[in-house]
């Protein structure tokens, strides 16, 4: 089958189109013909080798972390899906590879796609939807609480704003002036132009920060939380809880403890919580998300759709950092 792969870690120059073996179907797998896949910053980190410590993939590796498509075959133990079903998913982190014509996915990681969405729109949802869902689940976000969502015009941000408003939270977000009215239309109550205003001097007593930036933004985010609040980060250093969750060896556990020590100590002094999130695959949660989408509670936000043969250009577009919402690759 045709796929976009890397033989070595590096820049976009290391990505190439090539032929790869068809997926092997296990007993509890569903074989899906991929119609569309989305591009995520996670793909860039994997491509560049930034996650080798956490995700030691074998090369060559097919890139891509979520998709929508049609079931073509099922394993003998599969009960919830049949050939012809339209589905979407974020595969388990050990079985990525959605920039390809087909993929085998565990039944438990798969869900019927939202019936009101096209394949392209459905493909934009799984990774960002599960990320926002699990961030709010981990922090136990409640009605009336206040949440700051960084980079509100990005893939995670556009979904998280809508989900947080649905959960009854007051939502603040950071973005550029060009996107102020746009993120307000998604549901943001307070919008801060990060180029002109320091969010850490403007916001106070927040219950949760969803950090997608890391670095200085992460450290400054501690200042807006009230005692007992929490920052959930997608871009900060992995913490010991994450090392335990992935059953890391003692070397990796020690590395993560040391890497996150400074920010965890700062959070402790501020009397707030720190948590690193690497979202997990979940067909059950995707079914819940599909219900919200079909009920018009949440809508997908797609910036551009690239043809399959332009996958490298799609990666470069996301790397440029100016996409509003998601970027999608259309296979068929």
TrEMBL record:
Database matches in SMART domains: PKS_ER (SM00829)
Which named protein is this?
Answer: L-threonine 3-dehydrogenase
Span of domain Enoyl reductase (ER): 10-329
Asked if Oxidoreductase is a keyword of the record, the answer is yes
Record key words, sorted: Oxidoreductase
Q: What is the lineage of its organism?
A: Bacteria, Pseudomonadati, Pseudomonadota, Betaproteobacteria, Burkholderiales
Note the superkingdom of the native organism. Answer: Bacteria
- Give the matching InterPro entries: ADH-like_N (IPR013154), ER (IPR020843), GroES-like_sf (IPR011032), NAD(P)-bd_dom_sf (IPR036291), Quin_OxRdtase/zeta-crystal_CS (IPR002364), YIM1/Zinc_Alcohol_DH_Fams (IPR050700)
The record's section on PROSITE patterns has:
QOR_ZETA_CRYSTAL
An example of a GO molecular function for this protein is:
L-threonine 3-dehydrogenase activity
Give the first-level EC class, as a single word: oxidoreductase
CDD domains recorded for this chain? MDR_like_2
What EC designation does it have?
A: 1.1.1.103
